[in-house]
Design a protein that fits this description.
The structure holds two protein chains of two kinds. By secondary structure, chain A is of the alpha+beta class. Chain A is built from eleven helices and two strands. The two termini of chain B are 27 Å apart. The chains are: A alpha+beta, B alpha/beta.
């Protein structure tokens, strides 16, 4: 079992959000597109990543407010599916995420045109997120502490470290993977934590999946160490 | 009201968050001001929230404005007109409103670091802002999406004086120059309206009002108001009744002396008279109304809210919290709570309502899943603890004048 102790602990942070109105709304795809191009980054964030937090209990789709509105209000089902397929965690910056959404809507408009309009009262309202980020009481120096904390922190903390901080800090991988790689020097485990499908379930499912990965690693690590120990002991006996 | 009582319901991290945010406000005082201490949704929420704010260490107190009969007539008109109801501005309304506001300014002490003014009745108090060292927030609980222009023109200059305004749904926000925030209302899971009840109690309540607990019950809980479309509900029920065994319950409460309500009730009774499975239930006002409503909601198989216009519709939050599959019109604040095919079914017509009732009565697994999702959605978004958290964040934002990412 890995006994490494990190020099810098993992501090589990959490987040909570307050939504603010921008005063801007859209009735058509073109208006939606123009809005997405022009609004500040916290608006794109609100309708994509913050969406994940709001719907944390849903084990599968949908993934963002744009997809829902396009499908359900404008009844543009094809574009709705395309937008729903955008995984916000694949992008390192809000700018890249925004560009991808813009590109998909522009491509759709160039082929299908903009023929539908939302009924009065069902317009898309551009909202922005104010995010509070704060440390929780959980910190970890070892893999064991880390696993134990992961079992206890709230879902918003899981969301923050898996989905949000990567984009805010423009990192290549999520906070958990980064810490396992850089502080505990466990690259294979970090790789597994970085690669697993975070849209395969709710935040609660993600927690279970992560804990499963960590425990499996610890078990295999114990097994490996056991094998090494047996090999060493066998060598000793042979020499005697 | 102790915050710790909510820990098992909302989870430890939610309560911990409240303490963390509250700690940042420990030297601040919050002053809430509204127009009534009892009756109505605002008084109901403040009665529970103010002690809870103090319990987590945020000094909060609550003042209620005073006014003569003419003032409350004027504010009733203003309230209705902001809701969009057409009527002529009563003569002298503005003068009465302004005079009463002045009277209240004279006796009230504005000691809060944050002053939260609830709804339009006390909105004019902001006139003293220049002489008071505080941040002012206007918390609008009503649907002002389509107000009578004269009513909005009257209050807009007051609104513009505030540091921030708060609305319950995006479509209620207004083109004003101040910052506007979204804070949805909430329900209290420990109140009589929402707390868990023994099965026997639920069964007894159903039987008391003539409902058969062994057969499916489709229910709408709302006052007898045309905007709640009880007639449409009966038509939808009648479209499926021949093929599916079920009962319909229209549960209403409130003032029986409202002439429009009596008229609608009469129409509903006439339309229902040929079917013994339609139950028109009028719960008289009184201390038992909340717990009986709770029991009836818990006894329902499906809950409808086929409104033509809505504010936020807390009856939906209540139904979702009880794990009920909900069918509701896509109006007002309803889409904030009912996400189509996720936390309920959104409909746009009588036919759509009928079809959704049929679908849920025949597909109990779907109904169960929607109910489960709905309860979780309410747990995370529409309980009083979330409401408190939003206020705490709002106070911190308004005090600091910040936006975006705030590390604390």
């Amino acid at each position: 079992m890995p006994r490494q102790r990190a020099k810098n602990p993992f501090i589990f942070k959490s987040t909570t959000k307050l939504v603010e109105f921008t005063g801007r709304k859209a009735s058509t795809l073109t208006e939606l597109l123009n809005g997405i191009k022009e609004v500040e980054g916290s608006v794109i964030f609100c309708h994509t990543l913050h969406f994940v937090l709001r719907y944390q209990f849903i084990p599968e789709e949908p993934r963002n407010d744009f997809a829902i509105w396009v499908s359900e209000t404008l009844n543009e089902l094809v574009l709705g599916e395309v937008l729903n397929g955008i995984d916000p965690t694949e992008f390192n910056t809000i700018r890249e995420l925004r560009e991808k959404i813009v590109q998909e809507i522009e491509e759709y408009l160039s082929v299908s045109g903009d023929s539908r309009s939302a009924p009065e009262g069902e317009e898309f309202h551009f909202l922005k997120t104010n995010s509070f980020i704060f440390p929780t009481k959980f910190t970890a120096y070892t893999l064991e502490d880390f696993t134990s904390a992961l079992e206890q922190v709230g879902e918003p903390s899981i969301y923050y470290h898996i989905f949000e901080s990567k984009l805010i800090k423009e990192q290549k991988e999520n906070d958990f993977a980064l810490w396992l790689r850089e502080e505990l020097h466990l690259p294979s485990l970090a790789g597994a934590v970085s690669r697993f499908d975070i849209f395969s379930g709710s935040l609660s499912d993600i927690r279970h999946e992560l804990i499963g990965i960590l425990k499996k690693y610890r078990r295999s690590s114990i097994f490996e160490k056991g094998k090494q120990l047996i090999a060493r002991l066998s060598g000793l006996f042979r020499r005697q | 009201m102790k915050i710790e009582r909510y820990r098992d319901i909302v989870g430890s991290h939610t309560i911990d968050e409240l303490y963390i945010l509250a700690d940042k406000l420990k030297n601040k005082t919050i002053q809430m001001i509204n127009s009534t201490a009892v009756g109505g949704g605002v008084a109901e929420i403040l009665n529970r929230m103010v002690p809870m704010m103090n319990d987590i260490g945020v000094k909060t107190y609550w003042d209620v404005i005073r006014g003569d009969e003419d003032f409350f007539q004027a504010t009733k008109y203003l309230h209705n007109a902001l809701h969009g109801k057409e009527s002529d501005t009563p003569e002298g309304m503005h003068e009465v409103f302004l005079q009463n506001t002045k009277n209240n300014i004279e006796w009230l002490k504005f000691n809060g670091d944050i002053i939260v003014i609830h709804d339009p009745q006390p909105i004019g108090l902001v006139q003293v802002k220049e002489g008071v060292n505080a941040r002012w927030i206007w918390r609008c609980h009503i649907d002002v999406s389509s107000p009578q222009p004269s009513a909005w023109d009257f209050i807009q200059p007051f609104v513009e004086k505030y540091d921030a305004a708060v609305f319950s749904a995006p479509q209620f926000s207004k083109p004003v120059s101040i910052r506007q925030f979204l804070v949805a209302p909430s329900i209290d899971p420990l109140s009589d309206k929402n707390r868990e009840l023994p099965r026997e109690f639920v069964r007894a309540a159903l039987e008391k009002y003539g409902l058969d607990p062994a057969r499916p019950i489709v229910m709408q809980v709302s006052r007898y108001d045309r905007l709640k479309d009880p007639i449409g509900v009966i038509h939808a029920y009648k479209m499926i009744k021949d093929n599916i065994d079920c009962q319909l319950a229209l549960v209403g409460s409130g003032a029986s002396d409202d002439p429009e309500s009596s008229e609608v009730l009469k129409e509903v009774q006439e339309l229902a008279s040929d079917d013994p499975d339609i139950h028109i239930i009028f719960l008289p006002s009184g201390p038992k109304v909340s717990i009986e409503t709770n029991a009836l909601q818990r006894g329902a198989t499906i809950i409808l809210q086929k409104s033509l216009r809505e504010g936020f519709a807390l009856t939906i939050s209540e139904a979702l919290w009880k794990g009920k599959p909900v069918i509701a019109s896509a109006v007002g604040g309803i889409p904030l709570q009912v996400k189509h095919n996720i936390t309920g079914i959104l409909v746009h017509s009588v036919e759509g309502t009928a079809s959704a009732i049929r679908r849920l009565l025949q597909n109990r697994e779907l109904a169960r899943k929607l109910g489960l999702n709905g309860r979780e959605f309410v747990r995370q978004n529409f309980l009083i603890t979330r409401h408190m958290r939003d206020y705490l964040m709002l106070f911190l934002i308004v005090l600091a004048g910040k936006s975006g990412v705030i590390e604390i």
